[in-house]
What we know:
Sheath_initiator; DUF2634 domain-containing protein; 3-stranded antiparallel sheet
Amino acid sequence: MADLFPTATIGAEVLPDETEASGASFGRSWKFDFETGEFVQTPTGRIAVAQDTDAWLEWCRKALATERYRHLVYSRLYGQEFESLIGLGLSRAAVESEIARIASETLLADPRTARVGTFSFSWEADACRFACSVTSVRDEAGTIEGSVVSL
Length: 151
């Protein structure tokens, strides 16, 4: 009869593909449609999966959409603080500067993110839409979009 309690192998090998030299693991994530607020489904009705760089970009989008300190399930390092801009009466240039700073701090909290930059802004009344480029430690890049309302 097979052993019901197998012994663990001490000093098990870690495959080099699992973790980058930087210590960042890209892994996988579920795809999410931020416009509809629903998970993306495959034609068979399963939730679609993002791998590697796409999973990291999903994390970036989610981090910029989540208010920091609002949900106890997340660490204190996760999310953004765009709400702190409401009611400060800052000029548009100052708001854009703060958006760039907050978004950069938010995205650089992840060890997979190497750089954040090339911000662009567009205003509609009191709402500021922005886009920025992000580059991973693997030197793969993507564009992340977000919006902030500053009253």
